[in-house]
Amino acid sequence: MIAIVVFHVVMVLLALGVMSKVVPVQLVGNMLDNLHKTLGITRPPPEQTRTIALVWIGSTIIIVDGSVFLLVFITRLLLNQRS
Fold first, then answer.
1. Quick one: pLDDT at residue 22?
2. What does 8-68 look like in DSSP terms, one character per residue?
3. Please, which pLDDT band fits residue 7 given cuts at 50, 70 and 90?
4. How many other CB atoms sit within 10 Å of the CB of residue 53?
5. What is the pLDDT of residues 23-82, one digit of tens each?
6. Are 49 and 28 in contact (CB under 8 A)?
7. pTM of the full structure
């Protein structure tokens, strides 16, 4: 439970840092370049770096929340079947 809360706090702080331009564009661009190279997709133009970073942060939060929800939901279903 604590790990989920810490994850959300870190992701929200990272998103706020990207939005408020506290995190340098160079750092965000380098992270996005590595991520896009790993996935084998084209790199966004430099003027869209912050927007794409926010999309990736939001997507990560949704994927992690969905995975945790499904884990809890399926676990409860299995435990209820045993009872």
1. 92
2. HHHHHHHHHHHHTT-S-HHHHHHHHHHHHHHHT-PPPPGGGHHHHHHHHHHHHHHHHHHHH
3. very high
4. 24
5. 888 888 888 888 888 888 888 888 888 898 899 899 999 999 999 999 999 999 999 888
6. yes
7. 0.81
Is residue 42 left, alpha or beta, with left meaning phi > 0 and alpha meaning psi from -120 to 50?
Answer: beta
Phi (first) and psi of residue 43, to 5 degrees: -80, 140
The one-letter amino acid code at 73 reads: F
CA gyration radius, the chain:
17
Report the candidate in 53, 62, 44 with the shortest Cα–Cα distance to residue 23.
53
Closest CA to 14 of 1, 27, 33: 27
Distance CA 28, CA 33 (A): 9
Tokens linked to 69 = 């929800």
